[in-house]
What does this fold into?
Amino acid sequence: MLVLPKGESHGIQVAPRWPSSDVAIDQETLQKLLEAQAMLPPGIELLLVRGYENRSSHLGVFRTLSRWLGIKVFCACYPGRKDEVGEIFGANGHDVDGSHVDVSIVLQGKRLRFLPLGVFTSLTRQRARAAQHLVVIEQVKAALKHCGFDIHRNETESMQIHCDYRPQKS
Ligand SMILES: [Zn+2]
It folds into this structure.
């Protein structure tokens, strides 16, 4: 497992999601991210924002509390989307190992943000923001898939590009 600080590290840009100060990732998963990066045209960069998080750390406690509060707020805002709570507020493997990562897109040096209010951003707003960059998003997702990543099937999770590296069986 590699622990990458904020900034450029091992050939990839890293911007740990608050309150983390670094991102832990498996060596092989990082290698595959770099391969995906290499497939993209210049001007499109991957930004690593979240990787492995130990459940029993201070961060784990913070995540547990913010998850509890987040679920309450989410259900109040979107009563019709309760069935998504597990997918959006679950650890999605971040507590298992360093092959589960969240990635953002940097286009011409500017980070694309599809979730200005995080997971509380409405689907309408997410889609409106994404609509301007559909080609770029598809390019990035295609590169990730080509390199062995599965993109999360939940729409909101896929907007913060949660993906899981699955080594090819050979
Ligand atoms: Zn994630």
Remarks:
- The chain has six helices and nine strands.
